[in-house]
């Protein structure tokens, strides 16, 4: 189904609505707006009828594989189903019609929601304070590192190093580098978790923090976490939690009990905001008391008169985001938390872990499982196996599209060759998991019997395999 560009559908003077001529003369416009700012020619917008507009965009949406149409086991990204009640609440006019410059007395409801959201995230994590300002996980990392940096500067202590495990998400290193830190990599051992001896060797008074993901990107819990915390704290460094994998721990493990000092949450992942098109996200940062003074401004506070935004914080690192943060995501996440409640949140993690282990058991006899042990909310297979012929993980991912599944994350984490990182999430039923397992097993058979069917996939989509590099190097906007 070839879908032309909306500009190619355009026909002179075709339109959806005809508005009456404007009865306010244009005379005087030139006096108000300097001539060089006034448009000379026509605007050049596409001219199409309303049905053409609707069909164009609905067709485009049907060419996409999304969480509302298909299973989407994209490891590390937590592509769970997003309850529609979140959308209803986020669209209440009381939220959508406020202006960020409105006086605080007139936005008490929104401030109350933000204040309560901080309390909920503190309760879940055991942190003492949370800032809702950062706009994504990576932004939360950067904000946290800026706070850690400010803390040591204030103490006049020189610490220029961040420790990061070799299994970490690329944003950990990127944020550290961006913040001016030196990075030292910590090795994983043969079980896929932190090598404690390597950590002991590399931990020193030069290290500002160890950034840890729990469960890690192999979907494995760090069994040595309490020892890790001791090693870091003995040298007075901070233990940072990349909270992107919180979906495995909700209501079961509090990061503070593991020795975490500072962390970020990915509200768009764990707390169900539609994401994946590049945003919007929200990456609140939680801290123990030691770091609370450094939180970005404003914080949301409450006194006898009501809620207010506090900009007057002497040691704050300053602003990291305009206004309230990505408020739409925060409202959705708040609605999600409140609609599930304490017991509901625990069930999320139990079922996320159960689903991942079920799929892992169904697939491990067909694909190589490099770390063969019970997993948390995700697991990593490898497309590298003696009998895989010429087929690569990318080919398996493309072939899955023909079966109506969004592929898993591929080629990450970097410590697994030809990685296939599968995160089913708690929102999928057994029938869906079974259908996915059957498709994977079918593809495994094809690799034996007819590998070119896999190498040349996808076969059933409106668009075949794209040259991804060409698309970004030679941007072509016309058909
Ligand atoms: C998604 C993710 C991040 C980055 O979060 P964004 O919200 O995408 O910026 C960091 N670490 C891990 C493990 C992740 O999965």
List keywords for this structure.
479 residues; alpha/beta; Aspartate Aminotransferase, domain 2; Aspartate Aminotransferase, domain 1; 17 helices; 38% helix; binds pyridoxal-5'-phosphate
Topology as a string of helices (H) and strands (E) = HHHHHHEHEHEHEHEEHEHEEHEHEEHHH
Count of helix runs: 17
Oligomeric state of the chains in view: single chain
Unreliable stretches (pLDDT < 50, length at least 5) are none
Q: Determine the fraction of residues in helical runs and give it as a percent range.
A: 25-40%
Ligand types:
pyridoxal-5'-phosphate
- Could you say what the CATH topology of the largest domain is called? Aspartate Aminotransferase, domain 2
Q: What fraction of residues sit in β-strands?
A: 5-15%
The dominant shape is globular
Please give the alpha-carbon distance between the first and last residues.
14 Å
Q: Would you tell me the structural class of the helices and strands?
A: alpha/beta
Strand runs, count: 12
Can you walk me through this structure?
This protein is of the alpha/beta class. It folds into three domains: 1-63, no CATH class; 84-340, Type I PLP-dependent aspartate aminotransferase-like (Major domain) (Aspartate Aminotransferase, domain 2); 343-473, Aspartate Aminotransferase, domain 1 (Alpha-Beta Complex), CATH 3.90.1150. The chain has 17 helices and twelve strands. The strands form three sheets. Strands 1-7-6-5-4-2-3 form a seven-stranded mixed sheet, with helices on both faces. Strands 10-12-11 form a three-stranded antiparallel sheet, covered by helices on one side. A hairpin with an 8-residue loop joins β11 (409-410) and β12. The relative contact order is 0.14. The protein binds pyridoxal-5'-phosphate. The site of pyridoxal-5'-phosphate (PLP) has 13 residues, from α7.
């Amino acid at each position: 189904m070839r879908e032309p560009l909306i500009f190619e559908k355009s026909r002179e003077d075709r339109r959806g609505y005809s508005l009456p001529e404007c009865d306010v003369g244009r005379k005087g416009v030139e006096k108000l707006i300097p001539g060089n700012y006034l448009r000379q020619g026509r605007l050049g917008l596409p001219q199409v009828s309303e049905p053409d507009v609707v069909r164009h965009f609905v067709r485009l949406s049907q060419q996409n594989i999304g969480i509302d149409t298909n299973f989407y086991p994209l490891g590390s990204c937590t592509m769970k189903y997003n309850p529609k009640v979140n959308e209803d609440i986020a669209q209440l006019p009381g939220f959508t019609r406020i202006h960020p410059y409105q006086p605080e007395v007139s936005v008490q409801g929104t401030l109350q929601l933000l204040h309560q959201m901080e309390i909920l995230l503190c309760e879940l994590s055991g942190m003492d304070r949370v800032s809702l300002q950062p706009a994504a996980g990576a932004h939360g990392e950067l904000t946290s590192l800026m706070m850690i940096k400010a803390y040591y500067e204030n103490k006049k202590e020189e610490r220029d190093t961040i420790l990061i495990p070799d299994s970490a998400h690329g944003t950990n290193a990127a944020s550290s580098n961006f913040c001016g830190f030196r990075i030292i990599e910590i090795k994983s051992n043969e079980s896929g978790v932190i090598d404690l001896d390597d950590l002991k060797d590399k931990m020193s008074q030069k290290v500002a923090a160890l950034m840890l993901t729990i469960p890690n990107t192999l979907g494995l819990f760090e069994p040595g976490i309490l020892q890790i915390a001791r090693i870091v704290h003995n040298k007075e460094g901070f233990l940072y939690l990349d909270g992107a994998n919180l979906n495995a721990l909700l209501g079961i493990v509090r990061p503070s009990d593991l020795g975490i000092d500072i962390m970020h949450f990915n509200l768009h992942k764990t707390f169900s905001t539609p994401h994946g098109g590049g945003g919007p996200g929200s990456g609140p940062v939680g801290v123990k008391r030691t770091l609370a003074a450094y939180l970005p401004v404003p914080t949301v506070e409450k006194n006898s008169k009501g809620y207010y935004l506090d900009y007057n914080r002497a040691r704050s690192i300053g602003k990291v985001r305009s206004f309230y943060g990505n408020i739409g995501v925060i409202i959705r996440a708040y609605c999600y938390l409140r609609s599930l409640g304490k017991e509901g949140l625990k069930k999320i993690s139990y079922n996320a872990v159960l689903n991942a282990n079920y799929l892992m058991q169904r697939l491990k006899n067909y694909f190589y499982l490099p770390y063969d042990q019970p997993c948390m909310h995700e697991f990593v297979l490898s497309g590298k196996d003696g009998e895989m012929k010429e087929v690569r993980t990318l080919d398996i991912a493309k072939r899955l599209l023909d079966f109506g599944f969004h592929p898993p994350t591929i080629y990450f984490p970097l410590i697994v060759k030809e990685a296939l990182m599968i995160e089913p999430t708690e929102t999928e039923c057994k029938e869906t998991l079974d259908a996915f397992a059957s498709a994977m097993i079918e593809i495994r058979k094809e690799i034996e019997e007819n590998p070119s069917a896999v190498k040349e996939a996808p076969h059933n989509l409106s668009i075949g395999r794209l040259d991804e590099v060409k698309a970004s190097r030679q941007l072509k906007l016309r058909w």
